[in-house]
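Q: Could you write out the predicted structure for this multi-component system? I'm mainly interested in how the pieces pack against one another.
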Amino acid sequence: MIPEVGSFSLILALCLSMILATLPIIGAYQNNFLWMSMARPLSAGVFVFLAISIAILAYAFVTDDFSVQFVAQHSNSLLPDRYKFTAVWGGHEGSFLLWTFMLAGWMLAVAIFSKSMPLEFVARVLGVLGFLITGYILFMLATSNPFDRIVPLPPIDGADLNSALQDFGFIIHPPTLYMGYVGFSVVFAFAMAALLSGKMDAAWARWCRPWANIAWAILTLGIALGSWWAYYELGWGGWWAWDPVENPPLITWLFGTALIHSLAATEKRGVFKAWTVLLAILAFAGSLLGTFITRSGLLTSVHAFASDPDRGFFILAILGITVGGALLLFAFRAPLMKSEFGFDLVSREILLLSNNVILVVAAASVFLGTLFPMVYQAITDDLISIGPPYFNAIFIPLMALLALLLSIGPYTRWKRTSTTYLMQQLGKVALAALALGVVLPLLVTGQISLPATMAVAIGSWIILAMLQDLVNKTANKATRLKGLRALSFSYYGMQMAHMGMAVMLIGVALTSSFSLERSVLLSPGQDVGLGNYVFQFEGTAPVNGPNYVGEQATFIVLQQGEEIAILHPERRIYLATNTPSTEMAIDAGFLRDLFITLGEQKEGDSWSMTIYVKPFVRWIWLGAIFMTFGGILAAADKRYRRLRRKQTESNRESEKSNSIGGELPASS
Amino acid sequence: MNKLKFYLPVLGFVVVAIALWRGLYLDTKTLPSMLIDKPMPSFELTSVDGSVVSNSDLPGQIFLLNVWGSYCLPCLIEHPTLMRLSEEGEIPVVGVNYRDRQALAVDWLAENGNPFSFSILDESGRFGIDLGVYGAPETYLVDANGVIRFRHVSVLDETVWQEQFLPAIAELREEGS
């Protein structure tokens, strides 16, 4: 009975979201106050009923209700409780419910934190979000209802959650990634509301910016968590594989990164208006494309859910209606968006534009590389695979170029910057960065290597430029501390995110160039050397978990004869599915990771295993954490919270810009 | 004209959407090899037992080229079929020990039995790239002239043997006679 309540609640949410998708938008056109003001309560209603649905699904998992097909396929009575609970997103149906629920959460947040925006605008934003949710719920009810029952004879026990998913990473990675992904739906809704109203002045950019920053920050974290999880769980020592399902989040991230920079130009200077709207649509399209690829069976990959062309067709239809419709509307409205000010060749506008061009080219290349095998097959009936060599060849130079420009950006001024000023400011920084790049690796490793020099030089170029900028900006205040306090959150957010980029680039470059790995066969008592380390195999002992049995090995790691770590990799067999799984052991460090994956037991008591030394690998995720904090810090800037002042300002601005034919008065 | 440029994004999207829609109904399971109807790449490599082997060591008749590895669980599933084929003399089987370690490969053969006339040792996976291997297990049907004629990805069990390989072999024999 209870699962049916979940289904019913989903239907109620559908009804409310259908009203939400229509009434407030029509109300906004007819200036019907009552209809517009229904948007907020309706959003809350949709959220509540989706919350009830997902809570009931979680309840079905926790109480082992195997009559529900989705529970039977993704849980087992032996599964630990924390995984029973999180198995809600362990398969297609439940994870899509989570996705929709999170969108409703964002929508509720918009409904609550939009007091400073005109009601007409809020009604349109929430209406567009209601439209998306309507599509998602229809999709669930039509092709993948998580509450479907197995009748008449339910199984006695469930098939268990995929053993690779029974891990801490599974608890946090999917929700974070989804949260970031659907955040770009909110940005999309803002852009659509602006297009629908025809009022595409700088005001929508200002309202949108904190939301875009937060969505971007969470997506950054979500991708980094996925990378970190893959690194320690999948056991091949990699942190990025250019897998067809890793790529859509990256595409979304690249568009999103371009968007938050372009929004700055649109808000501050009223330029690139059409371009910003287009980026908002593209970032959203990237997020839907990710959904489409994972859920349609279009490409085979570790992330793919069970293939089903019908589902794919349905999502494609949603994609076609929303993105296709949005782009068509864009084509109608874009000619009306005019830049308000011109700018010179050397100016902040140009730097932001270069950033956008690089990021969009990168996103387009990743997109092409992801879908090209499929297109090729459709045309020639042959199969090809496009792997890391293609992506690296395009991506690495683009990111290096981006990093070079990244330091210059904060030094430029809007409209015009003198080149002599830039040279005078950054000339010394460039020299110092180059010197550090040559000297530092030489001191540490005693040899010169190009990748290390490049990594350190680019990293210190960014960080030194940032420090000097801080010094400049605080120079005129009474004390440095006062100067630091006077700087805005958005300034700190920007610097922090840029520093994150530097840290990540250093990590990527050094890990890719200096990682060591070795596969060996060892018996207890034997040891093997790798780099400066000696790994001593002590032996194995049986170990039993709640739903698995296995063997745990013990290794002692020595550096110059001194013991520095003890590692316990495991080999497990999960009982419900009888699948083997390997749990690697990692000694994590700021400067290097050591890790071991245990293979199979061979003749006698010898084991096959692979040992890795990965310098600076942590810096990749550390950089992502900096970026995340940077994004949140920027969104927390005071000026977004000064409600009243902001509102009057934005009205003044919209009058000043007088953007399009004045078919609607600036509402207050 | 200037206004028309704003229609480019939606046009691009329509093209991509059509490609995605077509992609939904493509068969991604059968993987034709780039080398179908081409001669086997030439090689001169060590075999798993340590001797040097080259194209001249290949059987002068129709044979199977099976890609395997000691790490590969599905290889154990198809192993009895390969053993039967080679023991009953139905067809010679040549192995490619793909991205494995020699010591592990020797152990694996000692433990499970050796159906191969010889196994090319391809520790680096370089030969696998020439051959266009996706991963173990994979089996190629090669004719008497050393030309690859058929490719099967994943496990070769009795059903696959009966339904796919036997007809393909019959066709080759007809062609030859």
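A: Regarding packing and overall arrangement: Residues 644-649, 651-668 of chain A have pLDDT under 50 and may be disordered.
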